[in-house]
Amino acid sequence: MRRLMDEAHTQQLRDLESRQEKEKKELKARQAKMSMETCKQVMSDKTIKNKAERDRRIRELNENNTKKFIEERKRQAVLQSRQIELLKKLHLEQNEILTKDSQRVSASTWWTS
Fold this sequence. Notes:
By secondary structure, the protein is mainly α. The chain has a domain of 43 residues. Helix 1 runs antiparallel to helix 2. The protein starts with a helix and ends with a helix.
């Protein structure tokens, strides 16, 4: 029984980690797309007169994007670590319940025999 539970816990942890890895990749792809779109917007902006102003504007927007991206990644990392902690806590509780139940069953069979 314990072996089956351990296998299920391992599988749940693997599934969670793969889902989190997928979310990380999607976030990075969204951020790269946003960065490219920002650059395209500045390049197509007709109100910017010269190259120096365009470069300054691109650098400014990239700095803002970088700050946002770092914050998003930090938030995602905190959320993902919290998810893993909760899953591990749940697994520990389930193991404790199984241990108590198996002890109770073995104690009751000891008294009846």
